[in-house]
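Q: Hi! First time doing this. I have a protein sequence and I read that you can turn it into a structure. Is that right? Here it is:
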Amino acid sequence: MSQHSVLSKARQEGRRQLTEVEAKDWLWEAGFPVVETQLARSRAGAVALSRETGFPVALKIASPQVIHKSDAGGVKLGLNSQSAVARAYRDIMTSVADKHPDASLDGVSVQRMAPPGVEVIMGMSKDPQFGPVLMFGLGGIWVELLKDVAFRIVPLLPRDAAEMIREIKGFPLLEGYRGSPPVHLPTLEGLLMKLSSFVEANSEIGELDLNPVFAYPDGATVADARIILEG
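A: Yes, that's right. Below is the predicted 3D structure, encoded as structure tokens:
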């Protein structure tokens, strides 16, 4: 789905938050290394897409109103069979409907599980005085537990991207800790620069999170993405 189609659909439906599939389509179009994600509107559809994608897969609730998907029971990971996918679809829809009875449930997103790596987060929020501000830190649950993040104002210079990565306390994890291989830092620096250019070119974006981004010795993959438009 093109950027124009994504924005038009969201505006027509009167919503600011893009679905995960919409956000990833837009990011893919812009050249980000996102995990391919498709929408399944039924249990049978989720099973069929999982079979096409190849196991193991992850299912996540697709709803503009559900921001914290895991808290609502809306995420199932590492599903290795069609029967596991069918059960996961049922459990997700039941749990989210119970916790968010007023939310519109579009179905689930289906994606192949990304290989494990070091989880980092990249994001953008808008400061009333300075405008777009980029954030980098350890991803997954660590960003909430440790608050170990660095910030810079857009537009970034290459020096800014390098400094952001190296000033977090968790940087030793990226260098390789206790025998684990180091991640490819130039890839992360390049992603921060790409994100800076992306948000600068798309002023209609109010907030953006790429979390987690799996960092590897030879690259990186965006496993989940959230985009909220300006009000």
